[in-house]
Design goal:
The radius of gyration is 31 Å and the shape is elongated. The longest helix has 21 residues. The protein folds into two domains: 221 residues, Spore Coat Polysaccharide Biosynthesis Protein SpsA, Chain A (Alpha-Beta Complex), CATH 3.90.550.10; 208 residues, Hexapeptide repeat proteins (UDP N-Acetylglucosamine Acyltransferase, domain 1, 3 Solenoid). It has ten helices and 41 strands.
Length: 467
């Protein structure tokens, strides 16, 4: 049985945020989310998050999915683990991962491989480490023939030890029972007056237990940041890593300027991502679709062979073989079937658009159910809100909505029905019928000379002055 304790109570004062450091976003995903995703992929089922500063934000983000404990005083990493003792006692005989919650780039492979190393070597504690080019500021791993003798902080290193490039990642595997035995033995006899989880190594060695280190292949697992400049660096690294992963999977990029892709986005091989495209959250892009330039999608699914140009979409879905844009907004609940065309300056909200339908330009479709092979003329809208309540429009298959038609919900347009240009439709239209709702045209001679006198005088002067 494996479990994990994430230390997520830090404030990160230099970030100047009212949220805990671990909720700072990398590519739109909180650091805590990156860590939990890696843990879940590694098969770690039971997770406890130690909260501290602004804990309500962490609890809100977790949504009750994982256990939390509150560290009321900031007395060090060892003390943070002590607050999770009731959680640890639920898993006797298991293995516990202790992880500092500000390093987003831990990966499932490192977690699984280090656990196998921990078990096979019968270690009481295994430190996950990384070899870096510049170890300045990090604790060095002091290896022995039988494992490690401890972690030496930079200020305590001898000249020879400063040359060591293997450093502590802040991630430890423990035998849970050994960890519980060791926590009461931690002391605060240091300059900070805090309990350090790293002191468990020396205690376990004195008790005759085995301590060892596992060097991960990915040196980025040690990276964290304490200020906004550092966070920008983490975003740059993450952005490049995500794009590289999709390149290896067969996704095409002709230029990555302005391209931002969430680590949770799924893009099928053969898709093309053009400059300025941003994919946030859990987007899913089908094979051979073209996204961009200048698209911004969040939690949106796109089928195969669709083309999106300058589209903003949030919690929407687009079928296969669709053509969308430019300058289209798909708001939450917009669901477009296959072979749909949506042209420039169109907004669709909480509506279903049937296969083969076209919403060509300058349209608003809200709270509507649109059938197959429906055509919207320029400027047609569905008026779904009366100031108090929202209602739905139903437009059946093969209907033709004429230019500048207003459909005032609730209203149903029948199969193959036709609305004349400029009509305001307030009642249901039968199948195959033509509806005309216009006031009778009236002409009042000489009206404009009085009404537009100032406008006409201005035009007269302009003509005189400009020939």
């Amino acid at each position: 049985m494996t479990n994990a304790v994430i230390l997520a109570g830090g404030q990160g004062k230099r970030l100047r945020s009212d949220r805990p450091k671990t909720l700072t976003e990398i590519l739109g995903k909180p650091i805590l989310g990156w860590i939990i995703s890696a843990f879940e992929e590694a098969g770690i089922e039971n997770i406890c998050v130690v909260t501290g500063y602004a804990r309500e934000y962490v609890e809100e983000y977790l949504g009750g999915k994982y256990e939390t404990v509150f560290q009321s005083e900031r007395l060090g990493t060892g003390h943070a683990v002590m607050t999770a003792e009731p959680f640890l006692r639920k898993f006797p005989g298991g293995r516990t991962l202790i992880f500092n919650g500000d390093a987003p780039f831990i990966d499932a492979e490192a977690l699984k491989s280090s656990l196998e190393h921990h078990i096979s070597r019968k270690n009481a504690v295994t430190v996950i480490t990384a070899e870096v080019d510049d170890p300045t500021g990090y604790g060095r791993i002091i290896r022995t023939e039988s494992g490690i003798s401890g972690i030496r902080e930079q200020k305590d290193c001898s000249p020879e030890e400063t040359k060591i490039r293997e450093i502590n990642s802040g991630c430890f595997w423990f035998d849970t029972d050994r960890l519980l035995e060791t926590l009461p033995k931690l002391e605060r006899n240091n300059s900070q007056g805090e309990y350090y989880i790293t002191d468990t190594i020396e205690i376990l060695l004195k008790d005759g237990r085995r301590a060892d280190a596992f060097a991960a292949k990915n040196q980025d697992i040690v990276l964290s940041a304490n200020d906004r400049k550092g966070m920008l660096m983490l975003n740059d690294i993450a952005r490049r890593r995500v794009i590289d992963r999709h390149l290896e999977n067969g996704v095409e990029f002709i230029c990555t300027d302005g391209v931002i892709i969430s680590p949770d986005a799924e893009i099928a091989p053969g898709a093309k991502i053009l400059p300025g495209t941003q994919l946030w959250g859990h987007c899913k892009i089908g094979a051979c679709s073209v996204i961009g330039p200048n698209c911004q999608l969040r939690d949106t699914e796109v089928g195969e062979k669709s083309v999106l140009n300058s589209v903003v979409a949030n919690n929407a879905s687009v079928g296969s073989d669709c053509s969308i844009g430019p300058f289209v907004q798909l708001r939450p609940g917009a669901a477009l079937a296959d072979h749909v065309h949506v042209g420039d300056f169109v907004e669709i909200k909480n509506s279903n658009i049937g296969a083969g339908s076209a919403v060509a330009h300058f349209n608003y479709v809200g709270d509507s159910d649109v059938g197959k092979n429906v055509n919207f003329g320029c400027g047609a809208v569905t008026a779904n809100y009366d100031g108090t309540n929202k209602a739905r429009c139903e437009i059946s298959d093969n209907a033709f909505i004429g230019c500048n038609t207003n459909l005032v919900a609730p209203v149903k347009i029948g199969n193959a029905a036709y609305t004349a240009a400029g009509s305001t439709v307030t009642k249901d239209v039968p199948d195959g019928a033509l509806v005309i709702e216009r006031a009778q045209q009236q002409i009042r001679e000489g009206y404009s000379e009085k009404k537009l006198s100032r406008h006409l005088e201005k035009g007269k002067k302009f003509s005189e002055n400009n020939g």
